[in-house]
Write a structure and sequence with these properties.
Blueprint (H helix, E strand, L loop, with lengths): L1 H30 L9 E5 L5 H10 L6 H10 L9 E5 L5 H10 L5 E4 L6 H10 L12 H8 L14 E4 L5 H21 L10 H14 L6 H13 L7 H8 L9 H5 L22 H8 L8 E4 L5 E4 L2 H11 L13
Antiparallel strand pairs: 1-2, 3-4, 5-6
Helix pairs in contact: 1-3, 2-3, 7-12, 8-9, 8-12, 9-12
């Protein structure tokens, strides 16, 4: 009798163990099998969410049959309960195990916005405003409020933001991007200033930034930047006016319609370097590092003048006579684009 009882107990126990083994095997296979996706999807995990809520949402979306399967799988494999909020790509073929791993890593979708070299603060704001993902805070802020939020004491924002492509996540704001651009410019400028050439005619790093912005606007030809900076440094040292067209254009603001005229060159603004001595009061754009480096490491040259050749490059001259000859050669043939800076 006892023998039959023990056999029965053994059979029940064996059946129980077999059931557990089957359940564990099935659950692991389920976790490693693709979810029911007909097309790629984006899953948003809100702040404060939990694995329990996530399992319910996945069930409601039809991605998994039962939310409890996911909870059992996580518990069985001791995956923990930590998840990170954000947007996640869920391509066709994704398994529950892969999705949980992605959410626990915080491998969220990354977006990007580009602030272009040589663009103005106004253009930066427009680029951020046009982004459909960024949270928009700037439209409700004045320039003064923006600078205060960034911790900047200056009243003029031009030149304080580094142009680059910035990656971000949904939920980040336009002000977050500006803060990063502001911090990066401050860091790069300070570092570059420490490595500057000796004897430059700048009182501080900000004046070097002003020069860099002019260099940035004058040429897109990399090998010319240091040479153009060298021309302007020579003119500053000789107490000559810079006479550079981009500063005139900046000073005109919305009055500029695409063609600079002799009247523009004669019109006084604080930025018209045909009318003022020395550097303009602020940068005229947001320069990238190559222009900053050029301003702080200008080429050694005797040139005092340059004129646009029409192909993006410039002709450099040491004397006014040579410069006027170059102007006749390159500019007077193209009256619609009168650019001959400096004189």
């Amino acid at each position: 009798m006892l023998k039959k009882f023990l056999v029965a107990v053994f059979m029940v126990g064996a059946a129980g163990v077999g059931a557990v083994v089957f359940a564990v095997t099935w659950l692991n296979q389920w976790g490693e099998s693709p979810m029911s996706l007909q097309q790629d999807q984006v899953l948003e995990v809100p702040t404060g969410s939990s694995l329990y809520r996530l399992s319910i949402e996945l069930e409601q979306l039809g991605l998994i049959e039962q939310g409890r399967y996911l909870r059992w799988y996580i518990k069985l494999n001791k995956l923990g309960h930590f998840i990170q909020a954000g947007e996640y790509d869920v391509p066709v073929g994704t398994t529950p195990q892969q999705l949980i791993a992605k959410i626990q890593r915080g491998d969220v979708i990354k977006y990007s916005v580009t602030l272009i070299n040589g663009h103005t603060f106004k253009e930066f704001r427009l680029a951020l405003q046009a982004d459909p993902v960024l949270v928009q805070r700037l439209p409700d802020m004045t320039t003064e409020q923006i600078l205060q939020a960034l911790g900047e004491e200056r009243k003029h924002p031009e030149g304080l933001f580094y142009p680059d492509t910035y990656h971000f996540h949904r939920g980040d704001s336009d002000l977050d991007i500006l803060q990063r651009a502001y911090d990066r410019m401050a860091s790069l400028l300070a570092e570059a200033w420490e490595r500057r050439e000796e004897g430059l005619p700048y009182k501080d790093a900000y004046e070097a930034l002003i020069m860099a912005s002019i260099v940035e606007k004058e040429t897109a030809v990399g090998e010319e930047r240091a040479l153009i900076a060298g021309v302007f440094v020579n003119r500053l040292n000789k107490k000559m006016r810079l006479q550079t067209d981009p500063t005139v254009i900046y000073g005109l603001g919305d009055q500029y319609r695409g063609n600079i005229t002799r009247t523009h060159l004669k019109t006084y603004t604080p930025y018209n370097t045909y009318r003022i001595n020395g550097l303009p009061p602020t940068p005229i754009a947001n320069p990238a590092l190559p222009a900053i480096e050029a301003a702080l490491h200008p080429a050694t040259t005797k040139a005092l003048y340059f004129v646009a050749k029409g192909d993006g490059s410039h002709h450099f001259s040491e004397t006014l006579q040579e410069h006027e000859k170059a102007v006749r050669q390159y500019q007077w043939k193209r009256r619609s684009d009168y650019r001959s800076s400096p004189k």
